[in-house]
Design brief:
By secondary structure, the chain is mainly beta. It has one domain (27-303): Thrombin, subunit H (Beta Barrel). Helix content is 10%, strand content 35%. It has helices at residues 27-32, 36-40, 181-184, 187-190, 294-303, and strands at 44-46, 62-63, 75-81, 87-96, 103-108, 128-133, 139-142, 144-151, 157-166, 174-176, 197-202, 217-228, 231-235, 246-252, 265-277, 285-289. Strands 11-12-13-16-15-14 form a six-stranded antiparallel β-barrel. β12 and β13 (231-235) form a beta hairpin. The longest helix is centred in the last third of the chain and has 10 residues, at 294-303. The chain is globular, with a radius of gyration of 18 Å. It starts with 26 loop residues before the first helix and ends with a helix. The relative contact order is 0.22.
Length: 304
């Protein structure tokens, strides 16, 4: 991935073993480890777990349907066992670096895999199931077999590998963005013929519109802001269960395109949902931008 602004150096990935998640994940890690960084992040509510919050009035999200953007098929649901008696729900997104490739690499939130962290710094992947629905309505089930790279604190992301690829003819992976999301949304740069816009999508488990995570909901044409490296703030609506869901920008690169297929309208993966700051309502969502780990992701996608 390229960017028109100076990228902040990637942080070394660290993995920590955490307690079972009961609606809020990651906060236990911050409390257990006497780290100023983790303590500073303890006011973030991760959008995963088994809670079913009330849907806000005038919620702007849409429920995925036949007329929804086709790229939403790349966003699936992840259910994993956090213990013998508890499960955790998150979202994940299949990504690729070029059109035509089958999907086997996905992105989710780091706190959605932290219960698999082992003492040697790796991950022992436990029982899990991922579910994707094609645009024709077919259900495709897979599982995560390997956590290739993850950060469970500042960046809160995980790059994972599925047990088998999903054919491009069934679901087209969301393409990794060639530019920083902030640049893609620059109307002076890319808005001459097409106004770029952002979307957040995930299996939010709110009681009304999200149907407790049974359907995929998305907030189209929402606003992405800045923030510290690895923690950006968007004025986009999501709830518990949306962690790991897609943050995407639809844009036409035009003359800035490196490849012919990039010149026209295309939707790019620019980040993944993390949660919200305590005290904010669900119209404000934190996400991890892909530029936080772009070198690692680019290499993994090239290898697959």
């Amino acid at each position: 991935m390229k960017t028109l602004v100076l990228l902040i150096s990637l942080l070394t990935t660290q993995a920590y073993a955490g307690a079972d998640c009961e609606g809020v994940c990651g906060i236990e890690i911050a409390k257990e480890l006497n780290s100023p960084l983790l303590q500073a992040l303890s006011n973030i509510t991760r959008f995963s777990g088994s809670g079913y919050p009330e849907t806000m009035a005038n919620d702007p999200r849409k429920v995925r349907g036949a007329s929804s953007p086709k790229w939403l098929a790349a966003v699936g649901k992840l259910i994993s066992n956090t213990s013998a008696t508890t499960k955790e729900q998150c979202s994940l997104t299949i990504v690729a670096d070029a059109p035509g490739k089958d999907g086997i690499i996905a992105i989710t939130a780091g706190h959605c895999v932290d219960h698999w962290a082992s003492v040697d710094g790796g991950f022992q992947v436990g029982h899990n199931e991922t579910t994707f629905t094609t645009n024709s309505g077919k259900t495709i089930k897979r599982s995560i077999t390997e956590v290739l790279k993850a950060e469970t604190h500042q960046g809160d992301y995980a790059i994972v590998k599925l047990n088998a690829s999903i054919k491009n003819t069934d679901i087209k992976p969301l393409l990794n963005a060639p530019y920083d999301y902030h640049d893609l949304l620059d109307e002076e740069m890319f808005g001459e013929k097409f106004k770029p816009y952002a979307t957040m999508a995930g299996h939010s488990a709110d009681k009304d519109k999200g149907q407790k995570g049974k359907v995929l909901t998305y907030h189209e044409d929402c606003r992405l802001n800045g923030g510290a490296s690895g923690k950006k703030k968007g004025y986009c609506t999501s709830y518990q269960g949306a962690s790991g869901g897609a943050v995407a920008v639809t844009v036409a690169l035009g003359d800035m395109a490196d490849e012919t297929w990039q010149e026209g309208e295309q939707t790019y993966f620019v980040g993944s949902i993390v949660g919200g700051r305590q005290g904010d309502d669900n119209s404000k969502t934190l996400f991890t931008e892909t530029t936080h780990y772009t070198r690692t992701l680019d290499k993994i996608l090239a290898d697959h």
